[in-house]
Specification:
two-stranded antiparallel ribbon; single chain; about 0% strand; mainly alpha; 2 strands; 9 helices
């Protein structure tokens, strides 16, 4: 969703204008993400309705029992209290046992009907939306398959390149701090960080997002790099 919103928010460069094709692809991507996000809550709701327990607890208090003679001489408030206790397994008078069983069957029937109606509506909505999306898509089936593969490969390769780039950058800063990098077999010189170095790298720093300036992406600060480049802390040569 973050990738999709970049085409609509104000952070997009002013000289960068999205084409109608890109807008259609963004809409297609948006509805695809939304549809996948609705699968879990809809599945939970359908299972709950097919079971009928939650619906029975919610609807029992508001059931109509005017046609049962056993409730004729009971006040409305007391009637609601008795009906609300039906799904909880409380002991009820023998005259109300039949009423409780009938209401339980009725509510489970209604709950299962709502569950199957929801399944039918969700299936029809998914089928119609899929057909509409394929008809409105500017791609053919093969082009869409290629675009999906291209999008996946682009993300994967970018992740690998970003991981390798960050590791190289951090290794350079660690070498400036300690004089060597982890995994080095031939370590001839090490560096003892000063107290100021430890203070600099221990201070919290936020990600700087500037215009043309480079951002600071880690707590291994630029201060250590500058101090080491100026020769303020000498290294210690290791004797063989």
């Amino acid at each position: 969703m973050w990738t999709v919103s970049e085409h609509c928010c104000s952070c997009t460069p002013p000289h960068r204008r999205t084409s109608p094709l890109e807008r259609r692809l963004v809409c297609l991507r948006f509805f695809s993400i939304t549809g996948r996000a609705l699968v879990a809550p809809l599945s939970w709701l359908v299972v709950t309705l097919l079971t009928g327990t939650y619906y029975e607890c919610a609807a029992s208090e508001f059931a109509s029992v005017d046609h049962y003679p056993v409730f004729d001489n009971i006040s409305a408030h007391k009637r609601e209290e008795i009906l609300a206790g039906f799904p909880c397994g409380r002991s009820v008078p023998s005259a109300m046992t039949l009423v409780r069983d009938e209401l339980a069957l009725l509510h489970r029937y209604q709950s299962q009907m709502l569950g199957w109606i929801l399944i039918t509506l969700a299936t029809i909505a998914a089928l119609v939306s899929c057909c509409v999306a394929k008809c409105c898509s500017p791609f053919t089936s093969l082009q869409h398959h290629y675009w999906t593969s291209h999008f996946h490969n682009e993300r994967e390769l970018f992740r690998q390149a970003a991981e390798q780039h960050s590791r190289l950058l951090i290794m350079q800063r660690i070498k400036r701090l300690f004089g060597f990098v982890p995994g080095s077999e031939d370590v001839k010189e090490i560096r003892i960080p000063t107290h100021q170095d430890w203070r600099d790298i221990s201070a919290p720093s936020l990600l700087c997002v500037g215009g043309d300036s480079q951002g600071r992406y880690s707590f291994l600060g630029d201060r250590v790099a500058e101090d080491h480049e100026e020769g303020k802390s000498e290294g210690i040569e290791l004797q063989p």
